[in-house]
Amino acid sequence: MRRLRPRGLQARLTLWLLASVALLFGLHWLVTSRAPQAFTEEYVATRLQHDAESLMVGVHFDDGRLDVTPGDVAPIYERPYSGHYFVLRTGDQRVRSRSLWDSDLDLEGLAGDAGLVEMEGPRGEPLLVWSDVVHKRGRTVEVFVAEDLAPLEQRVATFRTRFTMVTLLLVAGLLLLQRLIVRLSLRPLDRVRDDCRRLEAGEIERLREDVPEELRPVVGEINRLLEVMQSRLERSRNALGNLAHAIKTPLTLVDQVSQRQRDRLGEADARQLAEGVARMREIVERELRRARLAGAGEPGEGFDAETELPRLVRVFRRMHADRELSFDVEVEAAGRFRGDREDMYELLGNLLDNAVKWASRRVRVHVEAGPGLVFEIEDDGPGVGAADRAGLAERGRRLDENRPGHGLGLAIVREIVELYGGRITFDTGGPLGGLRVRVALPSAPDDG
User: Fold this and answer.
1) Do residues 306 and 296 share a domain?
2) 71: buried, middle or exposed (CB in 10 Å: 19+, 13-18, 0-12)?
3) Does some domain include residue 112?
4) Which structural domain, as residue segments, surrounds residue 344?
5) Same structural domain for residues 228 and 332?
6) Environment class of residue 129 by beta-carbon count within 10 Å: exposed (0-12), middle (13-18) or buried (19+)?
């Protein structure tokens, strides 16, 4: 089974920081929570040793019997079940503290030099016992002094509970602080992402390079690639325009020669040659028109219909000044469309060219407000029947062979619309009565 791993940089940093904090605080809690127990036992052992020494001062032998001077016994050892006990043992003689009352310590098998041991008290409480062997007046005395650890253990448990709560609060606070630090540290990545979005929307021409040193090579490489792509695109467009210009003159010569040699050619050959020359001329004119329409746009510049559409219409007015066409342009607050500017010029240019070709006197262009780019282009020409509208965008399809054109414009329009995931429809139900083309392009998705 494949192990799941966090893919985001922020998730990875958060996970590793969480693991390190949990490990460090776990070790800290383990050491700190056990330290009071050790300190407590050490403190009790020191006190028991001191009490044992005080008891030995009062130890004496009356007629060979072991006894302790009452004045040398602390009052705590006189109160029944006080939690403080002692037992003195020599041979078969034993002296117990009054605090044991009618009970005794189970010292069976416990040597006097055992040091510190833990055992159960007369009422089942945990006892810490200090044992030692003392030689006094030529006799050996085993001393056992014990203290109840229950009150101290209860206080230690209370300390551990409070310490655990404080530790958890500190861990939670530190994790939130680390989360904030990670987000602040990765904020330059968010800024680079925002710059990429602005670049796509055409608001900027290149990414800002005032970024952390680790990101600067990546941003610089992206800017270099943008420059290379723009340079190649400009060279391609310039080469296409130059090629169209270069072909135009030889094509005119071919047409002139074919006209002079028309009598020598057969009628079918002459007509085929004329059609071929006419089609090549249309292609050349189309590419030259594209070169005139194309501006010096930057990559990702976007398309602002409110600014660009009137400019495009003025070009068509000049190109068809002899026909006195009327252009009705309506642009609602559509905003900037996040698409390639040249693609939009080619899309609208082809549709306007088709509308102008078939229009009698009027062409209407309407751009709607809303997400994406939605517009209608309509003419007052003869329109297209329902049976023929389905094949309008097929490459090379022409409805009237007597009109100029090579049938590629609408097919290119459909390709651009499909590339942007949009929709194109044809009908004749508009106010002008001719062909109405409606195009809806969705807005570019955000990188959430």
Assistant:
1) no
2) exposed
3) yes
4) 302-448
5) no
6) buried
